[in-house]
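Ligand-bound model needed. zinc ion.
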Amino acid sequence: MANQSNPVKKVPIHLQSSQNRILIKNGKIVNADKMVDSDVYIEDGVIKMVGCNLIIPGGTRVIDATSMLVMPGGIDPHTHLELEFMGAVSVDDFYQGTKAAIAGGTTMIIDFALPSKGESLLDAYHKWRTRATNKVCCDYALHIGVTSWSDEVKREMEELCKLHGVNSFKMFMAYKGVFMVNDSELYNSFETCKELGAIPMVHAENGDIVFENTKRLLKSGINGPDGHALSRPEEVEAEAVNRACTLSNQVGSPLYVVHVMSKAAAEVLAKHRAKQIKQNGNTKIYGETLAAAVGTHWDENKLTCWHDAAAHVLSPPLRADPDTPNFLLNMLASDKLQTTGSDNATFNKDQKSLGKGDFTKIPNGVNGVEDRMSVIWEKGVVSELFDPCRFVAITSTNAAKIFNIFPRKGCIDVGSDADIVVWNPKGKRIISAKTHHQAVDYNIFEGMECHGIPEYVLVGGRVCVDEGQLKVVQGHGKYVPTPTHSEFVYNNEKVSEIEVIDESKEIKALKLQISPPSSVT
Ligand SMILES: C[C@@H](CNC(N)=O)C(=O)O
Ligand SMILES: [Zn+2]
Ligand SMILES: [Zn+2]
Ligand SMILES: [Zn+2]
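Prediction:
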């Protein structure tokens, strides 16, 4: 402590490390609501000034963002790092998974602490905190799984909200005998979330139908990876989405449906959202889809070898309908879906081999935490289905609003954390397991050419991608409490206003910048 004899020594500002002070110049700032040509001045990990001709102290590092977009770092609301699941532990841990996230322009993840059978919610929460602390390279928050129901579970949900910065709980309508809860338990958990000002989340598939279909398929001798999708067709997902929306409407609670993977499910969710908007002027139902669902689909012709097929096994499954990716992208463009996650749960080839001869034993999960931003940019913005503002909304801002960390996260504004990606729309890269930063030995986007890459990524004001070079620091990330009673969810604020997407001048200007690959420098 400073006292008369040794007053606090303040390092003169011009001698403080320039790492502390950064000016991002000549870029175009893209927030969810607008784009503007402006500079950003950062000090001590926080955005201090936004504007032109800023007066800045000496020793400030200047990043030239000419012809580049300055966007909020991605927030991935759905990851499973170091998850024990189906007899394996996902290979991307909190260090390598967050390192890969940053490499792709994501600067915060929200992971799931899932209690195993008999484990309390609080024990799961503390286990995940222990795993992540001192390993994460970027900030993180936690959703907690509710895999059974009792008065004790209810009490623990309250304690997690009031004392541990949790505001979201995931209930599984599938994985019978492992995570699955029934409708009364869903009803009670939704009601408790409403009392606490928390967000109930669901994995929406009818687990009983999956269970019975699986028995029938195995008995008929269908045991390969294709049996996985056959056991849970689109209507099995759509039925559960419908049930979850009805339950939330009856309880009067919000609802966040994770990994919407099919046209049928997306349509049901959109119908319930429209009904609430018609009745109440707004809706508290939100839908998330995945980079996997918009970046690829279940292609029998491509998935010839067992490993390729098993690598693409997740739940709900990738759909065979080749129109699914575009359909879901249009749902994102028109605000019928609000967020994009990766659902990154990566299992290597030898782990996936646990399911040889019995598809129910293939550990479910795919990669995505590194490539989510590039895949959404390529499939959404480059193909002109939505503009960069909408890209920011669905990859960062909407998740920040729903999970109540906006505007600290999810926007470029004075006072916000300096989690920033400087995006080079003219850059390009080919996605491959040979070059990705993840631990897993395959990549479901293998060979995809993406236009648009992160040139710089700032994590809490630290430059962790510097002219494309990855310079992460293990343990640099912190746990971010997510407070209850998000005003966007509980005070009926709209999460995102959708203007009709027309050929705005920004799109034209951007299109000119994203020149065809031949002339890409
Ligand atoms: C447990 C986790 C596994 N990943 C997946 N979607 O198959 C999930 O269901 O979200
Ligand atoms: Zn799930
Ligand atoms: Zn293969
Ligand atoms: Zn998941």
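The first strand starts at residue 21 and ends at 25.
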